[in-house]
Amino acid sequence: MAEDLKSNANEDLPIRQNLVDTAVGFLLNPNVKQRPDDAKIAFLKQKGLTDSEIAKAFNRVKYEAETAVVSNENNQLVNAYPLPPYQTPNSFWFHLRSYSSAFVSFAVAVYVLHRFYKSYIEPWLFGSKSEQSEISALKQQLTELNNSVSRLTSTVASLEEAVNIQILQIDRTSVYGVESVPKSVKDILEEVSNVKSLLLNR
User: Where is the Peroxisome membrane anchor protein Pex14p N-terminal domain positioned along the sequence (predicted)?
Assistant: First the structure.
């Protein structure tokens, strides 16, 4: 049978690859494998395949069968002798790299938590730095204002004392028929008293 196929494989007609592929699938069918080769060839000729196309289909079936056997044997060898498991290197550099990665991850986590605390938690608990600066500046201004008012109060008291002394001197040197205290001096004394009362009632 094989000699007949080889003798007819030298036809000049071009091989139709699609028909060859269909014939290979037909020959690989488990039900078709049990039939004799003559019956297979006769069926393929009825379908319009040439002798060269039938020969090529048989050759491909034979090649694929041999390839399947070799592949099966290789799989059996791999299963019989499995590869040893991969051993993780226990060198110094491997441990150092592991510790370095862990340290970097820890440092990044600490930095993120610190930024979150500074940006959100601390201002919420203690107020922002700008607000604290404004409060401190306002307290300082109030302190300076209190000091200024205290100095002004002392100055007004000194002025009032000086005016009173001047009034006493005028009274001693006054002449009969002349007003003992000039009106201008009384006005000054009244203004000083008003300023003093305002400072004391602030």
Answer: 16-60
**Tokens read off for 35:** 């039939």
Contact 152, 199 (CB under 8 A): yes
Taking the C-alpha atoms of residue 27 and residue 4, their distance in angstroms, rounded to an integer, is: 18
Burial 162-189, CB ≥16 within 10 A → b, else e: ebeeebeeeeeeeeeeeeeeeeeeeebb
- Mapped onto helix, strand or coil, the DSSP state of residue 31 is helix
Token code pair at residue 137: 């500046």
Secondary structure tally for the chain: helices H, strands E: 9, 0
Per-residue model confidence as pLDDT tens digits over 133-162 = 777 778 888 888 777 777 777 777 777 777
Contact at 8 Å (CB) between 56 and 15?
Answer: yes
By C-alpha distance, which of 99, 102, 10 is closest to 52? Answer: 10
| Residue 4 · residue 54 · CB < 8 Å | no
Q: What number of CA atoms fall less than 13 Å from residue 38's CA on the CB side?
A: 1
Number of Cβ atoms within 10 Å of the Cβ of 122: 13
Q: What is the pTM of this model?
A: 0.30
